[in-house]
Task: structure prediction
Amino acid sequence: MAVFFGVLCALAVTWSIVKYFGVQSVVSDTLPLQFRDGLNSRYAIPIYALEPSTPLAVQAEYMKSLAGGCVAVPSFALACFFAGQMQAALLGTLGATVVVISTVKSWMTYRDNCRRQILPADTNEA
Result:
């Protein structure tokens, strides 16, 4: 079982990284100049990816990247649990809790952005 969850974790991390770098390549062009270097863009991408001005398709890709983290970290915790590494499993469980809470907060922002872009179109028709 530990191998299964280890492989699942590796696949989820890889998928999440690919999605994140796709978002980074799109969003980095819109960042202010002081955030365009590698170190500062790492901290700016999560904020600018969910800005209302960012296209919803890019925001959706960012949310997919976060969802990959929501699969990867619990998979890591389960792999550690089945491998008998209880301290690592507890640490992974704590990390999974933090990742899920952060992802839910980001999803709420994404949901609000979706509603913001849908509502003006509906009010123009009425």
Notes: The mean pLDDT is 89.
